[in-house]
UniProtKB/TrEMBL annotation:
Keywords: DNA integration, DNA recombination, DNA-binding. PANTHER family: INTEGRASE_RECOMBINASE PROTEIN MJ0367-RELATED, PHAGE INTEGRASE-RELATED. Residues 21-106 form the Core-binding (CB) domain. Gene3D superfamilies: 1.10.150.130, Intergrase catalytic core. Pfam families: Phage_int_SAM_4, Phage_integrase. This is Integrase/recombinase XerD. The lineage of its organism: Archaea, Methanobacteriati, Methanobacteriota, Methanomada group, Methanococci.
Length: 324
């Protein structure tokens, strides 16, 4: 089944999980065991949210967790992939959770599926994010470094970085913005080419909107289907190459590291802008479900990952659990 077919059959928003007494008896045992092991409260709460998804699936099958067969576990992970649109990383978290759950409750029926999965390397691929987030202060330092450079394209490059920060867009999404996607009266852009295949609308500040208006007047090609960020070397209206954006950003970051403005041990990349924007919005009190929509995430858990503040994450998990 391809992505388009999947979207026709299943809603992108996962079905809500209702708490039941049957779930509670397992959750209680699991929580007591984890607390006895001195596991952090935030980790336990996170695990319980996922555990309820699994227990609700067991109820769908009208089976107890200790009655499930290897094939039933296969069904569960297909359910996570197809109906809940879980990423590889999230599925790995469920796999690790079930290993702990079945070990703590001393049930043996998960063991066969675990061995088979390890042999077939089902849960060994991780969507690792090898970068650090940045705050507004660091972002402005990078922006200033680009503006003060000797590059002929520094205005375009700095504007692109500014758009990336304010919108939280992925690099490819910003580079693919065309004239027809712009509503410059409102400072809005329609993002079409997205990772999740779903269009969304993003906004920029009034100041950035004015700069965009002035900048795009200088483009050689300004038809509806032309990109707003054009390659100024080829003069053919083609979009800026992604590698160029990375190189410009990296050069600015390296200069700031040399000057001691950014710690040398930190890995700051273009995607750090997106990560930093998510954290900034959450810090300012924007609801996490709104941040999820702004960033174009499929899963709320992905948005939670973008928040590195332990205090905020714990508070959010407490609030989410109250709603379950």
């Amino acid at each position: 089944m391809n992505e388009m077919e999947r979207r026709l059959l299943y809603a992108d928003k996962p079905e809500p999980v209702k708490k039941t007494e049957e779930q509670n008896k397992y959750v209680k045992k699991f929580k007591e065991e984890r607390e006895f092991d001195n596991i952090k409260k935030t980790t336990i709460l996170n695990d319980i949210v996922r555990l309820r998804v699994f227990l609700a699936f067991c109820e769908e099958l009208e089976m107890e967790p200790f009655e499930l067969s290897t094939h039933d576990f296969v069904k569960f992970f297909n359910y996570l992939n197809n109906r809940r649109n879980c990423s590889i990383t999230t599925q790995n978290k469920y796999f690790n959770l079930l290993k702990v759950f079945y070990r703590l409750l001393r049930y043996e029926n998960f063991r066969e599926f675990e061995i088979e999965s390890n042999n077939r390397k089902r849960f060994t691929k991780y969507e690792k994010k090898h970068y650090d987030t940045i705050d507004f202060e660091t972002y402005t330092k990078i922006l200033k470094e680009v503006v003060l450079s000797n590059s002929r394209t520094k205005v375009r490059d700095a504007l692109l970085i500014r758009v990336l920060w304010e919108t939280g867009c992925r690099r490819s999404e910003a580079l693919n913005i065309r004239y027809k996607d712009c509503d410059l009266e409102k400072g809005r852009f329609r993002i079409r080419d997205t990772k999740t295949y779903e269009e969304r609308t993003v906004v920029v500040s009034e100041d950035t909107t004015k700069i965009v208006i002035d900048y795009i007047k200088q483009n050689l090609r300004r038809d509806a289907d032309d990109f707003i960020f054009q390659n100024e070397v080829t003069f053919n209206g083609k979009r800026v190459k992604p590698d160029w954006v990375t190189a410009v950003f990296k050069k600015a970051v390296n200069k700031l590291k040399e000057d001691g403005a950014i710690p040398k041990g930190r890995r700051v990349v273009v995607h750090s802008l997106r990560h930093g924007r998510a954290t900034d919005l959450l810090d300012k009190g924007v609801p996490i479900d709104i941040v999820k929509e702004i960033l174009g995430h499929k899963s709320l858990e992905t948005t939670l990952y973008y928040s590195h503040s332990k205090e905020r994450k714990e508070k959010l998990l407490d609030e989410i659990q109250k709603l379950l």
